[in-house]
Structures are given as structure tokens and as C-alpha cells.
Automatic annotation (TrEMBL):
Stretches assigned to coiled coil: none
Protein name according to UniProt: YCII-related domain-containing protein
Gene3D superfamilies hit by this protein: Dimeric alpha+beta barrel
Domain YCII-related span(s) in chain numbering: 1-90
Lineage, opening ranks: Bacteria, Bacillati, Actinomycetota, Actinomycetes, Kitasatosporales
Length: 107
């Protein structure tokens, strides 16, 4: 089962200890074949909305930038419980904040 884990931005600046811990965590998940992709996202983005035949494109940043997704990890695990445990481990490393875990459907 594949899961997308996303995280929102934090007010805390990363330090060398955080980088080292995250590096070890990423290496572990990669070696286990669990981590499929990871990355950070630009804060602005582009919003594309549709209503009937009208398509609107709006450049960011948007008013609630703190609600935007700052980064992601795509993982492949055996169960939702395993995905949640990996998200817990991630939160223990990065500290206070919010992450969302969603199952990815399709091929």
C-alpha cells in the first residue's frame, strides 16, 4: 500500500542535529525499500480552479501560507498502521507541527 505523508511549514529553523537525524531516517527507509520519493515544496505555488467551462489560474503565495504543504514523502508499506508509525517517527525527529497521511490509490 502506498501512502503520501505531507507536512506543513514550521516556525522552527532546522539545525545540524535535525539534518543528521533526518539523513539517518531517510537512509533507513531507502535501504528498506519503503521510501519511494521525498521532497520539499515551494511556498507559493499556482492554483488552478474550474467552474463549468471556466478555468482560472492564480499565482501564489496565498493568504494562509502556514496551511500549505511544505514537504512530502511517498512510502510503500504493508498497512496503514505502519504508515502511521513512520509518521510518528518523523514527527519525533522534527518536533512540533502537523503531518497528514493519506493512502494513494491507483497504479
Amino acid at each position: 500500500m502506498r501512502y503520501l505523508m505531507t507536512t506543513k511549514p514550521s516556525d522552527t529553523a532546522p539545525d545540524e542535529k535535525l539534518y543528521a537525524e533526518m539523513g539517518r531516517f531517510i537512509e533507513e527507509l531507502t535501504a528498506a525499500g519503503v521510501l519511494l520519493a521525498t521532497g520539499g515544496l515551494e511556498p507559493g505555488g499556482i492554483r488552478v480552479t474550474s467552474a463549468g467551462d471556466e478555468i482560472t489560474v492564480t499565482d501564489g503565495p496565498f493568504a494562509e501560507a502556514k496551511e500549505a504543504v511544505a514537504g512530502f514523502a511517498l512510502i510503500e508499506v504493508r498497512s496503514q498502521e505502519e504508515a502511521i508509525e513512520l509518521a510518528r517517527r518523523f514527527r519525533r525527529i522534527v518536533g512540533d507541527g502537523e503531518s497528514v497521511v493519506q493512502q494513494v490509490f491507483g497504479p
